[in-house]
Amino acid sequence: METDSLISPDNVIAKLNATSKKQILRELSRRAAAITGETERAIFEVLMERERLGTTGVGNGIAIPHGKLQSLQKIHGVFARLETPVDYQSIDEQPVDLIFLILAPETAGADHLKALARISRILRNSTICKTLRSSDTVDSLYKVITESINSELT
Asked: What CATH code is assigned to 3-153?
């Protein structure tokens, strides 16, 4: 998984203003629709279906919503830093402020799991999260994310 195939500056939201989990997922669906060519509704429904299985709020203020769509040709990512932490029904019951959305083709199988694992490892790093939380521009967030992904690859 190459960095530029997963995320680009257009897929980074520096100051997402949302007040609920549902609103977060709607905003991420809107952004993902613009980059994938898929409909906002289809993306939102896949994300909500996944949330019904169990929260993607993994703890420490982090959520990694994800889903698969038949029409996608590759894995796409969207990163958002929230203006204000939001209750996401996370496993640790703490509000979320860093979110990395992953959308994959239905046939992605292992690649989807590898992307989830890689993003999870990166966001478990407290130094990276601290840097993301203190960054407030698309460029600075994108730089931290891509450098972290690239260092994971080496």
From this structure: 3.40.930.10
User: What's the whole-model pTM score?
Assistant: 0.93
66: annotated active-site residue: yes
Q: Is 12 helix (H, G, I), strand (E, B) or coil?
A: strand
Beta bridge partners of 80: 13, 99
Q: Which of 141, 136, 124 is nearest to 60 (CA)?
A: 124
Active-site residue among 29, 31, 43, 66?
Answer: 66
Q: Who has greater pLDDT, 153 or 152?
A: 152
From CA 95, how far away is CA 90, in angstroms rounded?
7
What's the pLDDT tens digit per position in 25-44?
A: 999 999 999 999 999 999 99
Indicate the residue type of 8: S
- 74 in helix, strand or coil? coil
32 within 8 A of 43, measured Cβ to Cβ: yes
